[in-house]
Structure of Ionotropic glutamate receptor C-terminal domain-containing protein:
Amino acid sequence: MVVPVRKISHRAWMFLKPFTMTMWLATVGILIYTMFVVWFLEHRTNRDFRGPWKSQLGTALWFTFSTLFFAHRERLNSNFTRVVMVVWLFVVLVLNSSYTANLASVLTVQRLEPTATDIETLKRDNAIVGCDGDSFIRKYLVDVLGFKPKNIKNVTSEYSFPGEFDSGNIGAAFLELPYEKSFLSQHCKNYTATEQTYSFGGLGFVFPKDSPLAAHVSKAILVLSEDGTIKRLENKWFPQNSQCLNSKIDIGNESLSLQSFWGLFVLTGGTSTIIFMLYLSHLFRKYRHHRDANQVYMSPTDESLWSRTVRLAQYFHKAELHHPARASTVEDWRASSWEYINESDYNTAGHPQATPLSEIEMPETSNL
């Protein structure tokens, strides 16, 4: 079946075409999961991930989303988080490269799509189809494929098909395979053949009854088919036009699916989960040490399960910020350099104190 082709226009949502819908949903899901893990690992020790809940959510979302473009600036304090981010950044690198390459291919390569892809669409739309009226194809279209006789138009010549297509008289043409290849070798830029092909018994050779030539001719054709001679003759008689190589027929879905990247998602998701469980184990051990150290001030036996759960959640949410050492100021230096000196400490035999100065009163003298 030969049908016309049309160019695929760049639609407004073409930037979503590199990935399938399932792939986009999986990417968003693993992004949110990584965001949660990063927030949980950092919010106790990192000042950037503290504050109100809206601020924490915004920081975690911005940090994880900015990693898609390698534009994140927040510092990481936990080694657990660094391990998660190493694997995540590798996955991001692969996804970015694949998306960019596929999008560039979609936007730069000229793509064509057939106007009709199957027979059922033609019959449902009551489209007019053309065929060679002198061949058996018309009867086959009616008896086998189920076309209505009024929807079949006889085309007398191979050269008349382009005019019938251009005028809209037919929507598809049914040709025998040799004629189809000959037609497409000359009009490959405007027409294409669908993948669905109907095979018959093939061409026959008529010989007299019980003629010995039938077996010899059949054997010779079989040998030519097996050694590739028929294929070489077909390529020689029906060469592919060089202009056809620059156009690509877009019949199927060429978007990248989850099947191509599920290994990467398992890698980053599994790493994040393992690190998350290790950090929880580490946090539980620290909580037990904290509880044992403060048993004097609390009575665990009198607490209910809900109280223990609340206390555990409060400990998980408690900040452990490490403040850097403050640089010494001038006042601190002066305070530490000048000390108070007690006079009694230095009035010893080893350190005799000088005699204090006293006033000497001079007697008045009379004038001579």
User: Anything to note?
Assistant: The longest strand covers residues 2-7.
